[in-house]
């Protein structure tokens, strides 16, 4: 797929997510989910939409007086407010980055919104949010504009798992039995191709499980059986992942990256075409890296403890190593979580102050920004 095609698909998919929000609105029920696990076809159950039909997010902002209220943040960089602790962020389809699609970890909701605009619930998935579990990531199908499928990485009372969500249907399990712990549950999803879903799993608080070939904890997995009821085991591409494992991709270069929190350091690694991980940079001071995003020639990481976004130059064949990271900004919005990159070069990052920070009145939030040059960093 060409670079232009990748960027076009990102815009098409994220815009479609917003336009059809009501098709997936409502609360899915896991009460019958395990019983229906072997069913490959979707059930005939319908779900009553909980929001009115949304207007397309690409429209111009509404004219008139500026909105008021407790959830209005005067900072023009803030594009979403009064959220639960965020766990995944996707661009909303406009080049200015004013719209976003964001997941709330504890509520299990995927929400479409824009600056000073209404919130539209795209999906509401029952989750067990004990510890750091819950709704941890989501990824629309590569053919979302045709099938309207969303894949989500979640916690239940018994395990962490990947489920598939279709309009008017209960979530269907795709991959189950990922160990769940008091901590170390956070993982990530990324479609490497239309037929292959990469799943990065946390170590469930047990580094020995991450190294064990008999456990799905702390692994980078390749899942090609994307229908419910499949008994095919995922292929293990890499082991030894720590907590808060996050995959991010550069749509321009095609490079894939992974961040995690190992027992002795936080890490940024590159994923090669076979799935092998190669370390690029480590943080022995363990700033609690929460997310990563890549675009152009840059890779950015966000942190919870030090409340920073740091930038590294993307490695190339001529220069496979990276220079020390530079700080894009720090301690402006509190603890930072997952990130995403827009084709325009803008980035979005969600805050997680309700999870472990000091929330302000408009938290949790999604913030957009354009990274400065290296000479302008450390601000």
UniProtKB/TrEMBL annotation:
Record-linked PROSITE patterns: PROKAR_LIPOPROTEIN
Segments carrying the region annotation (Disordered) are 41-73
Q: Which Pfam families match?
A: GSDH
Which residue intervals define the domain Glucose/Sorbosone dehydrogenase in the entry? Answer: 99-244
Q: Tell me what this protein is called.
A: PQQ-dependent sugar dehydrogenase
Lineage here is: Bacteria, Bacillati, Actinomycetota, Actinomycetes, Mycobacteriales
């Amino acid at each position: 797929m060409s670079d232009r095609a990748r960027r076009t698909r990102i815009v098409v998919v994220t815009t479609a997510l917003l336009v059809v929000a009501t098709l997936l609105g409502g609360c899915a029920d896991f009460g019958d989910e395990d019983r229906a696990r072997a069913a490959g076809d979707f059930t005939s159950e319908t779900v009553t939409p909980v929001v009115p039909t949304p207007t397309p997010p690409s429209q111009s902002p509404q004219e008139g007086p500026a909105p008021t209220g407790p959830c209005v943040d005067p900072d023009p960089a803030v594009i979403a407010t009064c959220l639960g602790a965020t766990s995944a962020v996707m661009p909303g389809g406009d080049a200015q980055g004013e719209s976003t699609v964001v997941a709330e970890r504890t509520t299990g909701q995927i929400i479409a919104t824009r600056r000073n605009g209404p919130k539209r619930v795209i999906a509401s998935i029952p989750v067990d949010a004990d510890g750091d579990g819950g709704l941890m990531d989501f990824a629309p199908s590569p053919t979302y504009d045709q099938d309207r499928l969303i894949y989500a990485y979640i916690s239940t009372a018994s395990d962490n798992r990947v489920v598939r969500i279709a309009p008017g249907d209960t979530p269907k399990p795709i991959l189950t039995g990922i160990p769940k712990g008091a901590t170390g549950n956070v993982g990530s999803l990324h479609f490497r191709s239309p037929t292959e879903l990469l799943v990065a799993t946390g170590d469930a608080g047990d580094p020995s499980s991450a190294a064990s070939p008999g456990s799905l904890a702390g692994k980078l997995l390749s899942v090609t059986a994307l229908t419910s009821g499949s008994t095919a085991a995922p292929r293990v591409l890499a082991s030894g992942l720590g907590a808060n494992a996050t995959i991010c991709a550069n749509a321009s270069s095609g490079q894939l990256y992974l961040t995690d929190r190992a027992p002795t350091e936080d890490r940024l690694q590159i994923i090669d075409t076979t799935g092998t991980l190669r370390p690029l940079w480590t943080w022995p001071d363990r700033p609690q890296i929460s997310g990563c995003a890549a675009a152009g020639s840059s890779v950015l990481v966000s942190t919870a403890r030090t409340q920073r976004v740091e930038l590294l130059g993307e490695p190339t064949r001529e220069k496979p190593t990276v220079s020390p990271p530079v700080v894009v900004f720090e301690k402006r919005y509190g603890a930072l979580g997952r990130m995403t990159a827009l084709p325009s070069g803008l980035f979005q990052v969600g805050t997680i102050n309700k999870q472990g920070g000091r929330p302000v009145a408009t938290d949790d939030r999604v913030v957009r920004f354009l990274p400065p040059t290296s000479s302008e960093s450390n601000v």
